[in-house]
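RECORD TYPE: inverse folding
INPUT: structure tokens
STRUCTURE:
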């Protein structure tokens, strides 16, 4: 009887722990933002890392557009590859845990799109189609920016 009770308590604690982890995994380290968006709270260095990645995304986008305009397929491939999944692979798990699930999946989806653009360019896809793919990807940049802010904290 007594060991049954201990087992029940252990089970409850285990369920509670899993629930807390699941909650963090989905919600990340967030708080209300200053302008109606949700702020993801990061260490200053982590915020700098994400913002540097963002500037990389912008310059990749610029490279794709310029490549498409000038018929420079190599430029398109190099620019999109630079923002592909490989670029996201080195983000450390502590930082990943602070990012909300929706944020992570939107971010990964953009990196995935960039690889798809590189593949399409390699396969000789016409510039018009490359531009369409890029425009679709840009809607994800806009969606994420309208929902989230980055705040330096703990
Ligand atoms: C998963 C969410 C997400 C996606 C997807 C995303 N961004 Fe961002 N980006 C952010 C957040 C959050 C900020 C910081 C905004 C703030 O704090 O006001 C940011 C900031 C930026 C900045 C400013 C960088 C700086 O140094 O201040 C640029 C440029 C940028 N993003 C470009 C892009 C481009 C281009 C894309 C798409 C190809 C993109 N982002 C996709 C979340 C995202």
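DESIGNED SEQUENCE:
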């Amino acid at each position: 009887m007594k060991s049954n009770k201990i087992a029940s308590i252990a089970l409850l604690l285990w369920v509670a722990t899993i629930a807390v982890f699941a909650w963090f995994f989905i919600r990340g380290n967030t708080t209300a933002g200053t302008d109606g968006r949700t702020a993801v709270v990061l260490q200053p260095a982590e915020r700098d890392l994400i913002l540097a990645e963002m500037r990389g995304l912008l310059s990749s986008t610029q490279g794709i557009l310029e490549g498409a305009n000038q018929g420079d397929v190599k430029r398109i491939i190099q620019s999109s590859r630079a923002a592909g999944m490989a670029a996201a692979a080195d983000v450390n798990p502590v930082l990943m845990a602070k990012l909300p699930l929706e944020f992570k999946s939107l971010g990964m989806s953009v990196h995935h799109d960039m690889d798809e653009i590189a593949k399409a360019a390699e396969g000789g896809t016409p510039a018009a189609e490359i531009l369409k793919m890029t425009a679709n990807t840009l809607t994800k940049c806009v969606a994420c920016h309208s929902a989230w802010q980055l705040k330096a904290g703990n």
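NOTES: Helices lie at 2-27, 44-70, 73-81, 85-88, 93-98, 101-122, 127-147.
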